[in-house]
Structure formats: C-alpha cells, structure tokens
Specification:
The complex is a heterodimer of chains A (616) and B (97). With 616 residues, chain A is mainly α. Chain A has 2 domains: 530 residues, no CATH class; 68 residues, no CATH class. Chain A contains 26 helices and 2 strands. Chain A has a two-stranded antiparallel ribbon. The mean pLDDT of chain A is 86. Chain B has 97 residues and is an all-alpha fold. Chain B has a single domain, classed as Helix Hairpins, CATH 1.10.287.3510. Chain B is built from 3 helices and no strands. In chain B, helix 1 packs antiparallel against helix 2 and helix 2 runs antiparallel to helix 3. Chain B is elongated and about 50 Å long. The mean pLDDT of chain B is 88. Classes of the chains: A mainly alpha (616), B mainly alpha (97).
C-alpha cells in the first residue's frame, strides 16, 4: 500500500522546522525562530486536512514503516495508522494548534526566551501529531511521553516564578503515575501477545487474555485519568495555569489533555472487553464533571475557571465513552477543542491587555467597551461551551445527554448537572469580565489585542460557532477503518426531549449566573466574606487537595528514606568501602612493588590461568 | 603445526621473553613489536588457509595500531630521556604510593 506524501510531511515538516530553528535561527536570529515553525504548522494543517479528505472517501491506512526494535519473540515496529478516528482528531489538533501557534507568535514576542518557548511549543505539537497517527502502543507511548515532557517544559517556562516551577513538577510527577500504569500495560501486552500494534492486539484479544487483560484495561484507564485529568489525578491541570496562556490553550484544546480520552477511544475494543470497566470510566467521568463544574463556579482567576471547566468537560467525554458512545466522546473532544481554544485565547487577550501573565475577575469587568472583538469571540466560545443551538458545543453535548438519558436517570442527572454548571460558570465569567462595573479601572488602560493575536481568535470563534455543521461529516469519518464496533461510533440523532433538557439546563445556568453577577454585582465578593468556611472548602477542592498533599508528603518521605538511607548510606557505603578494602588487600599481599616487570609477570600469570580455564 | 604457526609462536615467545626479562624500556618496546608481528604472521597464514579476507583486514588494522603504538611508546621513552631518567623500567616507580 502506498503511503501518501501527506503522512511523511506530518513528521518531516515539524522535524525540519525544529532543526533549522534550533541550529541556525536560535543562535543567530532569535527573533525569526517562529518563521519555519509557522510554515511547518501550515504544512501539517494542510496534510491533516488532505488526509481527512482522503479518509472521508473511504481510504484508510495501517502501514508498518519499519522495524523499530526486536528481541526474541517480540518486536515493535514504527508505523502509521490513519483511519476515521485519527484523521478526525488530527485535523482538529493540527488546525487549532496552528492557530494557537500564530497567536503565540504575537503573545510571546516580547519574552526574552522566545526561541526556547517556540521550540518547546512546536515539539509539543509534533508529539501530539505523532501520537495520533501511531499504530501501536509502544510508539503511542513514545509520543505520549513527549507530550508529558513538553508540558513540563512549558508549564514551568517562566522559571523565575516559584509557582510555575512547582506546577510543572507537579504536572510531571502526576503524569508519571499514569505513565507508569501505561508502561506496565504495554509490558503485559508484549509478554502476552508479542506485538503491540492496535489491530493485532484487538484481533488476538478475542482468543482470550485472562485476568491480565482486565488489568491492562484498568491500567490504560489510570494512564488516561492522569493525562486527561480525571478525578483522583485531576489536580495538576488547574495548577498548570502558571504557564503562558498559549500553552494553556494548546494543552487544553489540542495537545495534552485530549490524549487520555484519545487513548481510551483508540483502545476501546480492549476497554469494552473488560467487564465493568466502561461503567467505572463513566462513573469517574460523571463524578469528575460535576465535581470540577462546582469548583469552577467558585474560582476567581480567569484561567483557573477555564481549567476546571476543562476538567469538567473531560469528565463529560469520559462519561459518554464509558456509556459506550465513543463517537460522541470523540465529537465532544473535537468541538471542545474549538471552543476551549477561543476561551483561553480570549483570557490571554485580557491578560495581555492588562500587561500581566494572569488576570483575576476582580481586576476585570466592563471590558466590552475596550475589547469589543475579544468580547464577541468570548461570547461565541461561551455559548458553544454552554451548548446553545446551533453552536458547536450543542451537537456534542446533546449527544452526551442523549447517551445518559438512554443509560438511566443517575447518568442523566450527572450530565445535566454538568451542563447546568457549565452554563453557570462560563456565563458568570462572561458577565464579570466583560459586563458589569469596571472596578477602579481607568478607561482605555486595557487595549484590544494586535492583529496577529486577534485573527486566530476570530477564526477559532467562527469554528466554535459553526463547527457543529461538521458533526455529520465527522460521524461518517469515524466509521472508516474503524477498530471499534459500529454502534459505539454512532452519533446522536436530534430529538426534542434531549434538546429541551440540554437547553433548559444551560438556560438555568445562564439565568442563575445573571442573577448572581448582574442583578447582585457584589454577590461574588460578599459570600466569600460571609462564609469563610465555604471559601476554604472551594480553595482546597472540597478537601481533596489536602489528601493529595498528604499522599505527596508520604511519597516524598519514602523517597528521602530510599535516597538517604538505602542509597546514600547502605549502597554508597558498599561501593565506597570497596576502594579502601582493595587497597588494604593489595597492601597485605604486597603486590604493588611499583616495578613494571612485576606487573607484567602478574599479567602473564593471570593470562595463563584464564587460558588454562578456557582450554582445559 | 605448520611452519608458519611455528614461526609465529616463536616470534611471540621471543617478544614475550624480551618484555618480561629485559629491563630497558626500548628493548621491551621492541619485544612488544615482536609479539605483534608473531600474531600477524599467524593471522595472515590462517586467512589464506580459510580464504577469509576478514583475517587480512584484521592484519592491516593491527599494523596500523602497532605503528601508532610504536610512535606513542617511542615518544614516551624520548620524554623520559629528556626528563633525565634512565631508560630502565625500574626507574618508573613514582606511582607506587
């Protein structure tokens, strides 16, 4: 089967751009570092759209490009898999990522470490692209780790901020938990099947895998939960807001957090094969959606509101996925990418306009006059997030509500609660940031973003409004070259009861937000003062952060014990003690005469003994 | 044992004796060269017997290494001479302690 040029370009263009930028532009022309990278983004986006169009016509590819490593009876090859699932997500990631690159070129222009930022940023993008088109678990894991590494580099990009350093370390370590689970899962698969390509594993799985296969499914879910910020391991994502805003946008919309959901969608035949696992995923997802939605309502930092909202939406994706509706989960992943990118970039515009790295709702307000374009784009993203017809968010959120409605009242309650909370927190943010009174702010201090930042935001806002029109096409795309069953990939059909439920939940949230912010402008500040215990509860994520801190300090203590006692005293003592021991031995045997000839005789004796041992 | 192997072993033994028994560094270096020559003789012969060019390739490599080794060795001896030390191996015992 011939591999189209577009597939090679997906890898070659970013690699070439990174090499040129790193070796030539970074040292000699740092201000130009982004130029080849932006060109590479254009090439990758073109290739991704070309591939999606090819797949739409019924073509798909699962091609081994070459042997990567092999030993004994197992082997790992390097290959690409372009099917409906990967091409649909790839097109979204490539286009949204490219627009965020353009935005970042404007946002980070003044930063002294501009080249370092852009190189890490593009490596992030490359890792995600490589992950999406992998055709086996090991290759997937390689790029998965690449994504984790780049997130570490970028969250802690402003190394002079202690909070950023701590957040990047926290994100990395939390992700290691999932990485370890993923690694163990891969080892089990290699041991059991000797092959890790998705197609082969899912084929061989039908002949049985026993209890180990259930373990693999569970481990994959742990991996996905850490990367996609599901309940026990979600806390790194809100803290990751310490990075520059384009990083947050890229992480939330396109590259990082969607990886876990994508892994589960990719491995869906395996996950569905394990009894009870899908329901566990749905329960964790639904719980996370409501939990994070509640927390988002109490945040004051613009980016933190959006971060908790991402956790909530990832929970909704996991809910749909766990209920067996992979197609809907992937559709929501794509739609979420569009509207979350707009929202983050608008928050970035506000921060940039204020000349700060982050903005709080107490510093904003009444921005509709000074930043009309940002307000229009933010409104588009907010409507889409809340799921109003006919925006992009409506199509996927309705699907989730329909899936929950079919599954039972408990699931429906979770989905509707998450939808209503979504309507509330995003409208609250909209009202507090753009409407209402502007607190002690001189008019004209906050300015609209420059063109190179405004244009990508505008395009993304357009996508957040209209991408719903693509949902039918995406539904058709997902069925091509599929590994999962056809019914799991089916999208929702429009139905009035679901429309009524979803829209009324969003309207309820919106109305409540209007009541809490516009009708009573001081409400958001007074409840914090009157109910300090509630404020403390929100600040500690309902106490979960304390549990995490406890576990983390226990792990830290264990690591100190291993490093201090086991390694430093015991093992190092053994190694360091061997030197005086051998010196003392040499002294007693008086072998060190210092004469060359004596040593030669010892060499000869040793050689003779060895020769005798070999020959006799 | 063919004559070629005998010659090779004899050269190797002579060289070994020179290295082990002689005290002068120059003589020891010559002994090393003799040992290497002995090995190359055997290798060349066996390469012919088995018709394997890899043996000859190894010989060429050994000659190159031996040349380098002679250069380095002679340089060291010259440096010792310049430093006013005798050419005896027993004079080099500073690292004992």
């Amino acid at each position: 089967m011939a591999v189209p040029v577009s597939v090679y370009l997906l890898f070659l263009a970013p690699t070439a751009a990174l090499l040129v930028s790193f070796f030539f532009l970074r040292p000699y022309k740092p201000g130009w570092t982004h130029l080849p990278i932006l060109a590479s983004c254009a090439v990758v986006s073109g290739s991704a759209i070309d591939l999606a169009a090819k797949v739409y016509t019924g073509w798909s590819l699962d091609q081994t490009m070459g042997l990567w490593m092999a030993a004994g009876n197992w082997s790992v090859s390097f290959g690409v898999r372009i099917d409906g699932l990967s091409s649909a997500v790839l097109a979204m990631v490539a286009v949204v990522g490219a627009l965020i690159h353009v935005y970042a070129a404007g946002y980070m222009k003044e930063d002294p470490a501009f080249p370092r930022f852009f190189l890490s940023f593009h490596l992030f993008y490359l890792s995600m692209i490589g992950m999406l088109v992998s055709n086996n678990f090991v290759q997937f894991y390689l790029f998965w780790e690449g994504v984790g590494l780049c997130s570490f580099l970028l969250i802690g990009f402003w190394t002079h901020k202690p909070a950023a350093r701590a957040a990047s370390l926290q994100a990395f370590v939390t992700n290691r938990v999932g990485d370890f689970a993923f690694l163990v899962a891969i080892f089990i698969l290699l041991k059991t099947y000797g092959d890790t390509s998705f197609g082969r594993v899912f084929e061989l799985m039908a002949y049985g895998g026993g209890p180990l296969l259930a373990l693999v499914g569970l481990l994959l879910f742990v991996a996905a939960a850490s990367k996609s910020a599901q309940f026990p391991l979600y806390f790194w994502l809100p803290d990751a807001m310490e990075g520059p805003t384009p990083v947050s946008a890229l992480m939330h919309a396109a590259t990082m957090v969607t990886a876990g959901i994508f892994l589960l969608a990719r491995a869906w035949p395996l996950v569905a094969f394990v009894p009870g696992l899908p329901h566990l995923i749905a329960a964790v997802g639904g719980g996370t959606a409501v939990f994070a939605g509640l927390l988002a309502c109490g945040q004051t930092d613009l980016k933190r509101i959006l971060a908790y909202s991402t956790v909530s939406h990832l929970g909704l994706m996991a809910l749909a996925l766990g209920l067996g509706r992979v197609g809907i989960a992937v559709l929501h992943l794509i739609m979420h990418g569009f509207f979350k990118a707009v929202l983050f970039l608008c928050a970035g515009n506000i921060a940039h306009g204020l000349g700060k790295s982050a903005a709080d709702i107490s510093e904003t307000g009444g921005l509709r006059k000074s930043m009309p374009l940002t307000m229009a784009c933010f409104t588009a993203g907010a409507l889409s997030l809340a799921g109003f017809w006919p925006t992009a968010g409506f199509f996927s959120k309705d699907g989730i509500i329909e899936a929950a409605l079919e599954a039972g009242p408990g699931w429906l309650a979770m989905a509707l609660a998450a939808a209503a909370l979504g309507g509330f927190y995003i409208s609250r943010m909209l009202f507090l940031a753009f409407f209402g009174p502007s607190p002690e702010q001189k008019p004209g201090r906050c300015h609209e973003a420059p063109a190179c930042m405004a244009v990508p935001v505008g395009f993304l806002a357009l996508a957040a409004l209209t991408a719903g029109g693509l949902s039918h096409g995406i539904g058709a795309l997902l069925g091509i070259g599929r590994l999962s069953s056809e019914e799991s990939l089916a999208l929702a059909h429009f139905s009035w009861p679901v429309f009524g439920l979803g829209t009324s939940a969003a309207v309820a949230g919106l109305g409540l937000a209007w009541f809490a912010t516009m009708a009573r402008p001081s409400f958001d500040w007074t409840w914090r003062r009157r109910l300090p215990w509630l404020q403390a509860l929100v600040a500690s994520d309902f106490g979960w952060r304390k549990v995490v801190a406890l576990v983390a300090s226990a792990c830290w203590g264990l690591a100190e014990w291993i490093g201090g006692f086991l390694d430093h005293r015991t093992w190092d003592g053994l190694i360091e003690g061997s030197v005086p021991a051998s010196v003392a031995l040499g002294g007693t045997l008086s072998l060190k005469s210092g004469r060359l000839g004596d040593y030669l005789w010892w060499i000869l004796t040793g050689t003779a003994v060895l020769l005798a041992a070999v020959l006799l | 044992m063919t004559p070629a192997v005998q010659v090779g072993l004899a050269l190797f033994g002579l060289g070994l004796a020179a290295v082990a028994l002689r005290g002068r560094l120059l003589a020891m270096l010559l002994g090393l060269e003799l040992m290497i020559a002995g090995v190359t003789v055997i290798l060349t012969y066996q390469a012919g017997v088995f018709g394997d060019p890899a043996g000859l390739a190894a010989v060429v490599l050994i000659i190159a290494v031996a040349a380098a080794e002679a250069v380095v060795g002679l340089c060291l001896i010259l440096r010792l001479h310049h430093a006013g030390l005798s050419g005896e191996a027993s004079s080099l015992s500073e690292l004992r302690e």
